[in-house]
């Protein structure tokens, strides 16, 4: 048997990546309560908001106010997505100490998603990351469509490594490798993520899987066997897939924690308390969340 | 990379294991239509009915009539569960050519499930299998709770091997290794199924995973890497988990076929046509089925 890591860090993206893809708009105090429940559940890294233009993502338009309302749980790192210098200014104003910048490994996807080519987005983010680091903020990078692009099909591992490398060059301390449409299989993880491990330190790479086709846990297990130790997930599996209405989006935090618990890998997260957070937000959304584990007694 | 099998045989258990755990009772002609859709989708091994006492599983009380109504698709093997000699008589009368007998790797589970100890159930099945083989029928065996028992907790690999061995001794040609409550992780599959591979021929062992906690696809991928080539699944993920109301039960055939297709492993099954069968039965049940792939566009 291949050895598995003893500890894993989970980056909870439900309040941002999750709620961004839900149709309902949650009132700011309810979001703050949800985030507090996640923090007390032991999630030490929570992406809470996005400083994109409020018109672009109405679900997250209250980012400034939300960050100010957060009751901070000790030892929890809160972060927010930032698309440009204007977003960074808002982030700094809000008091958040960690931001995330984002691009894709597919030109077509990036153009459709953020209306910029990949190199253009790197150019836009360069002064943003510079400024953020000067202000003492830390910066995470996201790469979308690292395995399959909904427009271009399979994405090469070399392209993913190029884009991840460009983000590290900017000064991000961690790059999240996203399977945006959830089409990756463990074999793709072996190929692409394995290639990334040859270029970059594994402890600076997060795996961000979506469960659209039910592959996410298999991909996590594959990545664990390869030594990866950072995984993005979303409480309850919050957030649909914008490319497949009604389908699942993010890997559910509960399903991830269940796997880790059963494998004896420490995450510091209480499954029971994450479930409580998920039930809370499910009530607010008025819908069942797709997590398998959440549905068990 | 470890090599994967080129071909996999799927045993579709939706009409039996699936419908048995749905609360709605489907009219016999609709079941027959569902089974025909599955056969035309390329599923070559379909468990269609159960000859347990009609009062025990009202959902499947029409087994005799259903088997008679089936419009047989060429090259499809139809089978039915048989609990005792009386059930075998009904099975023979119905004209079905393959039966399945079943026990568990946990004493407590077996007693609660079929009111017999494991050895007692083997003793009961001995004359049943003898008679079935004499009549020219073929026989499959099921072992439930091969990884975790809802009453006893973890089950040892030696116990599973003992019970599987006892079934092979009876004359069954294949044993299905069931993760009844869906609690197994790939590591458990590596341990227990790996041990079974040391004792029995891999092509006589089917892996029967449940997706209660979202682990099924990860377990399938682990088993594929170990060389297993027979998997049980249920169209749409039909069938809940009797130990966790509202939760998922069987691995969904669509999710399995999606994985196999993406890995380039042939199953002979058309994903589109299985989805049609699942939509059909979902309409009859009046509920959404849990398959992830079924929810995608």
- Written as H for each helix and E for each strand, in order along the chain, the element string of chain A is EHHEHEHEHHEEEHEHEHEEEHH
Give the overall pLDDT of chain A as a whole number.
Answer: 96
Number of domains of chain A: 1
> CATH class of chain A, anyone?
Alpha Beta
Tell me the major beta sheet of chain A: 8 strands, parallel
Note down, in words, how this protein is organized.
The structure is a homodimer of 297-residue chains. Chain A has 297 residues and is an alpha/beta fold. Chain A has a single domain, classed as Aldolase class I (TIM Barrel). The first copy, chain A, contains eleven helices and twelve strands. Chain A has helices at 14-20, 28-40, 63-69, 85-94, 107-114, 118-134, 157-170, 186-199, 216-225, 253-263, 271-285, and strands spanning 9-12, 45-50, 77-81, 98-104, 138-144, 148-149, 153-154, 174-178, 205-208, 230-233, 240-241, 244-248. In chain A, the strands form three sheets. An eight-stranded parallel sheet of chain A has the order 1-10-9-8-5-4-3-2. In chain A, α2 crosses α3. The two termini of chain A are 32 Å apart. The mean pLDDT of chain A is 96.
